[in-house]
Amino acid sequence: APQHYPKTLGNSEFLGKTSGSGVQRWVPSRSTRREASNEKRQNDANFRKVRGILNKLTPEKFDKLCLELLNVGLDSKLILKGIILLIVDKALEEPKYSQLYAQLCLRLAEDAPNFEGPAENQANQKQNTTFRKLLISKLQDEFENRARNVETFDKNDNPLTPEEEEQRGIAKLKMLGNIKFIGELGKLNLIHESILHKCIKTLLEKKKKVQLKDMGEDLECLCQIMKTVGPKLDHDKAKSLMDQYFGRMRALTNNMELPARIRFLLQNTVELRANNWVPRKAYIDNGPKTIHQVRQDAVKDLGVFIPPSNDSMRNDFFRENSFLPSKIKFDRETFSGLADMFGQMPGIGIGTGPGVIQDHYSPTMGRHRTNQIYNGHVGNGNGSSQTQFEGGSRLYNKHNQISLRPSQSFMLNKNQVPKLQPQMTVLPRAGSPLGQLGLKTNPPPIQEKPAKTIKKAPPTKEELHKMTETLMTDYMNSKNTDEAVNTAKEMKAPKHLLSEMLNKILVSSLERSDEDKELTSSLIHALCTEGLVTGENLLQAFQGVLDQCPNIEEEIPLVKSYLAQLAARAIIADLMSMADWAHQLENGAHFPLFLLCLQQMVKLKDRDWLTDLFQQSKINMLKMLPEIDQKKDRMLEILEGKGLSFLFPLMKLEKELLKQIKVDPSPQSIYKWIKDNISPKLHTEKDFVNILMTSFLQYIAYEINPTDDGEQFAVPSKEQLDEEKQLLLSFKPVMQKFLHDHVNLQVSALYALQVHCNTKAFPKGMLLRYFVHLYDMEIIEEEAFLSWKEDVTQEYPGKGKALFQVNQWLTWLETAEEEESEDEDY
């Protein structure tokens, strides 16, 4: 409803008027008040429904009640905020059931309406829902004010009254309940790890003007959050932080300023982590239970059979079935054993809260009190009543005091009853003597779903290392890949530790023979094929070994050579790509490991295979060298030293061709050298034509002007111009051999000419002369010239200046071509 500001004494300043009797008050209309009242009434009704749903929440009814909660009417932030307040209050009051309430929050965070605006991406949208924001805000408020209520009682110098002691206990229970609830939400990723770390830091840090002995509540909360969510936070990425936390906690355990209880709490938490988060005592599940679990516990621990809670079974069990005569008379003492165990006194049952079964069969329950059976007597037909089952146990002893001892007819002698066949006290069949009542007989079979088997905890990092060592030892002895893969399956390594397992496999094979390395590669290939590990896991494992290289090299000097063999086999088997492997070794990291890996691949395959793979990977070899060596000449020198220069044949051409032309500039000699040293597959490459044209132009420039005098280039003599033309004409056969009928390669030759002129600062007329010569000698076709003119690229510098020099000639060429085509038409 819209907010209104009535002109009352409280807000007269807002209206800019002074208060007084003459001020007229604004009174909302009757319809407005009715709307506000209806809205408040509707909200109150919704919150009552939510309270009822939360009171009924159990593991069995979880899905059903979640749907009911979502259908309450979550149509505004106000309703959502109210529901969050109710859930948090329940979680704080009942920390035993924090896990159940955290699961409820997870469901609401996923399915509740979102009143926030659309986020930029889907990931942020999930993190920024209205429910999650309101929940975190409420928990933050509770966390920041965690010790406020407890400190209120601690500041009182006088002894606390029993009522105050109780209130202080409730306040402390809520404080620890909030911490546990935060931890449970963290386990479900509803609260980010960074927030959990911030909470831990806040609890650990020493506050100003606060003595250490007064930090007991914070340290107790710290132990609670570590116990709840510590195992989730204790992973490799956060190991340094966790080590710092526990180092501080270990120091506090020896500080005598702290109370002994807090020091022992800290010590228990430190020992819990040291024991891989496995508690010393057997874990007792005090959380919510299903009815099936409670029945199992009753049969196992107390020997009591609790029938299913449905009307037909209840009627059959207590009234008209084969176990109970239709007209039998009995008193309430028959049920005393069951009643004693599950609450004989009025108002006392098994318990309250989520996951607890109410005692539907207790004689004290209100729904049964009007029934004569549950009042202890049954009419015998003549109007008189008498007590039956005199031989049975009595609720009252001879001193008329209440006996809390269960009836013997409901107790089992555990030494006489097999564990797999629990017994109970039942009523005799019709016709049995009354004196035999209370004898033990086997109950009818319980039709229940089989109990879920408890999954074995996954191995820890240390356990996985030991298991992997054993696996590799057995595998190297047996050489049975299938058996090793089955063993790896049985290990059930967690996903986040798969790279650790592969890391151990790689390290264990470094010093072994080439045959054993091949076996290791076969095992890794089999693990990938079976889907146990991925290429990403393998890359992470290699990276882990690389990080350990400085330490491993002290014991294994040739570790990089051995690692190169394993990496080469993995790339050949297509377990990881060469590009991904090269990415980890950029800027000369672990140099010369990448080159060693290439050498191994040449040995295992051949040059052509490696050349094709290297070209497909599009790896920048300069980046694979240390920064000081990232030059073309130095790179070619290093590759020649490693026998890998075949990967860059054009670099060799660029370096050697000009030398060869200077030795023998005849076309036959040049063509023969190219044919012998350059693969035919490269003859149609643009880079090859670029290098060929550049080498010819550099040779011509050298012959005309050996001293590289800029003035002679600017104003060449007639003799120099003639020599330039003759030299270009001498190279015509070679150029035509590689450029004829290849317009795209001719365009590359023109770009090489453009770059050459640009390096000489575009001497006047040089580019135009060469264009005319190439056109007249029929080395470059008209189509190539026009394509060069229209092409737009930033790859080759000087295009603007080049066009300025030859634009008029290109226009003439284009016009002449059009006229020629018109003449042909006629």
UniProtKB/TrEMBL annotation:
Keywords: Acetylation, Initiation factor, Isopeptide bond, Methylation, Phosphoprotein, Protein biosynthesis, Repressor, Translation regulation, Ubl conjugation
Positions with biased composition (Basic and acidic residues): 32-42
Gene Ontology molecular-function annotations: mRNA binding; translation initiation factor activity
Domain MI: 463-586
Domain W2: from-to ranges: 640-823
Family: Belongs to the eukaryotic initiation factor 4G family.
Name of protein: Eukaryotic translation initiation factor 4 gamma 2
